[in-house]
Design brief:
2 helices, mainly beta
Length: 399
């Protein structure tokens, strides 16, 4: 049995186990309602939410960071695809890496959040949660925000890993957070979209959907957009949580939405990619370029890039949805692509990280890891990225 198949089966087995454990939770959820007096109890807050002053660090090496289910975080040379260094975590990595303050932050499928020196690959610190950390962290103003399947959402000091505050919910967190307006927004496996104060972790509001949330929120123009497994995309007021509009898709929405200009782009599990008016939710176009989709789109230079479970990366017109080109790998694509002026980087469940030339549509190089790559790669220099990214991608959340 090929190694990439073994690791893909392992990933899907973990994924299926996670969802089956949520069956009871999803069945008990009610409609989309505003809850100003939640029935959840925050964990005791610390006396002070102050953080260690972060250090400004510039990374000069042309590096691309990619994580694999083989338990390694790789720093790949963007010119050759060869590793400059490799960091071994405690177990497989689903979380997408994020770059801030000269460090790479990510979670593991064991129970740790890591901070690794971006230049050397040496561990700076690690924080132990109760169980799996599938989510990608968000790093803002010296704080690392990340949720865990242990039902707790954490705020950590970015320089030391010290816990600043935490919030305990009824179920875990798979979604990655977004930060805006002094608030942290994140979806829960209990079907709630939460808004916490960034400094203290006080619950500002929460709004229910009808099923568990794997999608990560994006905040643009005073609205929070998020998909749910109830087959709907929600736009709610960022300050109050009050719904502005709700759009029904043809299947569950596990991917994270992206807003580029006045258009919201999202993908459903059945493989349909939608372009909606961000203000009203009115559909502009919908297209199904390939197979099912669990990963999130990236919008760059008039093109929507998205991976599919039919093993292909698709480039479709952001204006019409017409397929512009396709690149085939050997297995499913779950991660979000990372796009530069010349290259699209993406991981595949065949265990490889690909660097695909946007002009020739051919791979410049590919690097073989020892496991499936379901997380999203990110470059050391944020300025090399082009386009608009979802919150789940490290590219969209670099400091």
């Amino acid at each position: 049995m090929p190694f990439f198949y073994r690791f893909a089966v392992r990933r899907l087995w973990l994924y299926a186990g996670l969802l089956s454990g949520l069956a009871g939770a999803g069945a008990s959820l009610s409609g989309c309602k505003q809850h100003n007096t939640p029935d959840l109890t925050p964990v005791t807050q610390p006396a002070s939410g102050s953080v260690t002053p972060p250090v400004a660090v510039s990374i000069t090496a042309p590096l691309l960071y990619a994580a694999s289910f083989d338990g390694n975080l790789y720093a790949l040379d963007t010119l050759t695809g060869q590793p400059r260094w490799t960091f071994r975590a405690d177990t497989a990595i689903r979380s997408s890496p994020v770059i801030a303050y000269g460090l790479v932050f990510f979670g593991s499928n064991g129970q740790y959040v890591y901070a690794v020196d971006a230049e050397t690959g040496k561990q700076r610190w690690r924080f132990k949660s109760g169980t799996y950390v599938y989510a990608s962290p968000t790093v803002v103003d010296g704080r690392v925000f990340v949720g865990s399947i242990d039902k707790v959402f954490y705020a950590l000091d970015a320089m030391t890993g010290r816990q600043l505050w935490s919030y305990k919910a009824a179920y875990g967190f798979y979604s990655s957070p977004a930060v805006a307006n002094g608030l942290v927004y994140v979806g829960g496996l209990d079907g709630n979209l939460y808004a916490f104060t960034a400094d203290r972790g006080a619950l500002k509001w929460m709004t229910k959907t009808n099923d568990y949330i794997l999608s990560s929120p994006v905040v643009v123009g005073g609205l929070v957009y998020i998909g749910s497994s109830d087959k709907k995309c929600y736009a709610v007021d960022a300050l109050t949580g009050q719904p502005r509009w709700v759009v029904q898709a043809g299947s569950a929405i596990e991917a994270s939405p992206v807003v580029a200009g006045s258009v919201l782009y999202l993908a459903a599990v059945d493989g349909t990619v939608y372009a909606l008016d961000a203000a009203t939710g009115q559909q502009r176009w919908a297209v199904k370029p390939g197979g099912g989709v669990n990963g999130s789109p990236v919008v760059a230079i008039g093109t929507v890039y998205i991976g599919s479970r039919d093993h292909a990366l698709y480039a479709v017109s952001a204006t019409t949805g017409a397929v512009q080109w396709t690149y085939k790998t050997q297995y499913d694509l779950y991660g979000t692509p990372f796009v530069t002026g010349q290259t699209v980087y993406v991981g595949s469940n065949d265990g490889r990280v690909y660097a695909i030339n946007r002009v020739t549509k051919q791979a410049r190089w590919s690097f073989q890891t020892g496991g499936v790559v379901v997380s999203s790669p990110v470059a050391a220099q944020k300025e090399v990225a082009v386009g608009t990214y979802p919150g789940v991608s490290g590219a969209g959340k670099s400091y």
